[in-house]
Amino acid sequence: MRPGVLAIALAAACTVGPKYHVPHAPVPATPGYKEANRAGPWRVASPADAMLRGAWWKIFREPELDALEAQLDLHNQTLAQAYATYMAARAQIRIARSQYFPTVSIAPNVTTGRGGAGTTTGSAGSIISTTSPSAARIGASSGRFTSYSLPVEASWAPDLFARVRNQVREAKYNAQASAADLESTRLLEQATLAETYFEVRGQDALADLLDATVKADAAIAETARSRFETGVDTEIAAVQAEQTLQTARVQATNAAILRAQYEHAIATLVGQPATTFSIAKRAMLAAAPAIPVGTPSRLLERRPDIAAAERTMAAANAAVGVGYAAYYPDLTLSASAGFESNAISSLLSWPSRVWALGATLAETIFDGGLRGATIDQAIAQYNATVASYRQTVLAAFQNVEDELAATSILATEIEQQRKDVELAQRAFELEKGRFETGIDPYIDLMQEQALLLAAQQTMVTLQVQQMASAVALVEALGGGWDRSALPSPDDVAKQPPKSARSMSR
């Protein structure tokens, strides 16, 4: 091998810049989560190292929710936007990789003129002729000429000191981060859909409660009216009973507002117009299921936002290498070949051939500190991604512990509230009997009515909160995602299918 070729090969094999190592993350060494051991009726699923996988929402055993989640994955426009962003990040890899290859261009050229006249050059086969007053005076003594050329030019800058390789690595890692962001968006939309679905079911349960309250209050109001008409009770008791009934009717009517808004939100999540979308009414009274939480050490492998933060660090590290490569010289190799002739008939003949080879070695000897400042900027940006990564990890553990505590405490609170509802119901029945027998005035029964309704409404609210907390816990755990599902650097560099490159219609 010639010495020059050997030198280029050795230079191209050099890689400048820092090697990437995943920084230390604040991961607890405990075998389990603190809040998973909280006493109460709700418990996490066993074994301790179990994981959610795939369609995590199926643990709630709601077939309608399953169907809605399937629609979301196909038609949600926020997901479509995140996917397009991911495809753009993958295209950036091919843009960076294009620098590995030479640039080849062709520029057909025709020049025509007359002695003493200015000449104009045309490209791509165009012919432009010009004459000047001096050329006109020369007349026939001046010879007319035409020149034809068909050059092909190529230039190539070998990837010395891994400038291009680091740019490609940076693009690959950014594409991986975009893939993880896509999964974070998917998980967020799935969790939002599940939470909104349970809000709808909670409103259905509340509507059933208020309808039953209206029915019971109507019977009491009828009794109060009859007692007044027969002179057994006062008019104020009849009016108060009617007022209580009307208040219950207003509450029942008002409950439909939130129910409609939640239903419309679900329509948007699944990519359907709210005008044509509806969900059948059905109360939800189920308790939160036992959720496998795994071990804290595995959380880093299960959260797509942590994966995105880590891949962003890797990309920032590669950007530092790009900055260091600027301190080394750039070599550009160029070549041109083609045909040139004064007659188009002989343009492509062998004697008309022309060629040239060249090389340029450029090195910046002074830039006013630009390269050093660029590296300092890249290092600072890398340090920022390290802090962001560690903060993401800390926030992830906080999310899990928060939702574990909320789900467990709400389960205990629901048990306590259930007893409160039973007592309120018993007190209402006893007071109703005393009112109907004329022992107590209606005002006493009205108070018990209000207490019972408030207790029942609180019960429904707590049940919805617990289901929402269970969904939030699943989201905090990363859903059914795992780091092994993240595409590799080679995978994101592959040519995407044609369907992914076509424009939406």
Summed over residues and divided by their number, the pLDDT gives a mean of: 88
Main sheet record: 6 strands, antiparallel
Percentage beta strand? 5-15%
Overall number of strands: 6
Low-confidence blocks of residues: 117-141
Structural Rg: 38 Å
Spatial gap, N to C terminus: 56 Å
User: If helices are DSSP runs of H or I spanning 4 or more residues, what is the number of helices?
Assistant: 12
Percent range for helical residues? Answer: 55-70%
Outline, from the CA principal axes?
elongated
Write the element-wise H/E pattern from the N-terminal end onward: HHHEEEHEHHHHEEHHHH
Q: Based on helices, strands and strand pairing, what is the structural class?
A: alpha+beta
